[in-house]
């Protein structure tokens, strides 16, 4: 069964979004939306994993809390190019499942997300 992934704040024209989509295509489908459309998407569809690009949303903490209220059991992963302990603390306190540095390695991305999905069962 194919998985459904939601990338929030990832811009469909960004190279990383394309790499992520390509990596995940073997196990599912990736929807990419701006922050403003994310709550509407969650009301329309059930996702197996939510990925939040830290470069996109203005208030990641509020966004994660909102996701948790709508679908409390979905893993939420925050990805960034420049991780900081302050942001890590913020996203974990808000309810994120994990906080990762963006990788351009398709195989590493696929293995990371497979492991997260396996832990959630």
What does this structure look like?
It is a single chain. This protein has 121 residues and is an alpha/beta fold. The protein has a domain at 33-53 and 60-121: 3-Layer(aba) Sandwich (Rossmann fold), CATH 3.40.50.2300. The protein has helices spanning 15-24, 35-44, 60-70, 85-94, 106-119; strands spanning 3-8, 28-33, 49-53, 76-80, 98-101. It has a 5-stranded parallel sheet with strand order 2-1-3-4-5, sandwiched between helices. Helix 1 (15-24) crosses helix 5 (106-119). The protein is globular and about 30 Å long.
Write the layout of secondary structure elements.
Elements: E1 3-8, H1 15-24, E2 28-33, H2 35-44, E3 49-53, H3 60-70, E4 76-80, H4 85-94, E5 98-101, H5 106-119
Parallel strand pairs: 1-2, 1-3, 3-4, 4-5
CATH topology of the domain at 33-53 and 60-121: Rossmann fold
Main sheet: strands, sense, barrel: 5 strands, parallel
| Neighbour order of strands in the largest sheet | 2-1-3-4-5
Measured on Cα atoms, how large is the radius of gyration? Answer: 13 Å
Beta-strand content: 15-25%
Low-confidence segments, ≥5 residues, pLDDT <50?
A: none
How many strand units? Answer: 5
Mean pLDDT: 86
Order of helices and strands: EHEHEHEHEH
Q: So how many helices?
A: 5
What's the overall geometry? globular
Helix and strand composition category: alpha/beta
Report the helical percentage.
40-55%
Q: Architecture of the domain at 33-53 and 60-121, according to CATH?
A: 3-Layer(aba) Sandwich
CATH class membership of the domain at 33-53 and 60-121:
Alpha Beta
Query: Which superfamily, in CATH terms, is the homologous superfamily of the domain at 33-53 and 60-121?
Result: Response regulator
How far from one another are the termini? Answer: 14 Å
């Amino acid at each position: 069964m194919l998985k459904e992934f939601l990338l929030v704040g990832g811009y469909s024209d960004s190279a990383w979004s394309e790499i992520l989509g390509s990596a995940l295509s073997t196990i599912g489908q990736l929807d990419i939306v701006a922050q403003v459309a994310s709550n509407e998407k969650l009301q329309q569809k059930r996702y197996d994993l939510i990925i939040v690009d830290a470069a996109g949303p203005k208030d990641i903490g509020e966004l994660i809390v909102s996701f948790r209220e709508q679908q409390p059991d979905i893993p939420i992963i925050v990805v960034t190019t420049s991780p900081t302990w302050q942001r890590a603390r913020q996203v974990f306190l808000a309810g994120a499942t994990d906080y990762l540095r963006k990788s351009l390695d398709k195989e590493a991305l696929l293995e990371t997300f497979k492991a997260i999905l396996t832990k959630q069962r």
